[in-house]
Every structure is written in structure tokens, then in C-alpha cells.
Amino acid sequence: MPTPRDAFEIPMRGLTASSIDVFSPPRSVIADMIMVQFISMIVTFMALLLFKGQDLSSTDVSLALIGVMGASLMLSTLYSRLTR
Q1: How many CB atoms lie within 10 A of CB 40?
Q2: Domain range for residue 33?
Q3: Average of per-residue pLDDT across 37-51
């Protein structure tokens, strides 16, 4: 039979469990978030080069290409470590 104390403890257990899930996600979720950031960097730099490449200086184009290559390298490194 439920007691008055259970009326307080049961919702607090749910709140505790959900806050633990939010503030300490599983390792795979963190890796997925990092991979999404690298993919968005690649897409952003490629869109910059595609749509504004003719207006950019050679220095800006070089920096965008370095950004694409760096993000690709980091993404492939992270992916290779996840697949081991």
C-alpha cells in the first residue's frame, strides 16, 4: 500500500533518473554530436567555396580548403576509432 512518503519519493526517482540521463549521456551520443559538428564544418566550408568562391581571395579559399581537409581528417580519425 502506498504511503504519503512514496508520493514524494517516486517522482523524485524519476527526476533523478532523467537528470542523470541528460547531464551524463552515453559515450556514443557524445561521439555522434562531435561527428555532426565536423560534418557541418565540411558542409559549411564547401557551400562557402561553391557559392562565394569567385568573390574570395586566394588566401580565403586556401583557408577554407584547409578547414575542409582538417575537418575531414578529424572526422575520419574519430570514425576509425569508433569502428575498432
Answers
A1: 11
A2: 26-82
A3: 94
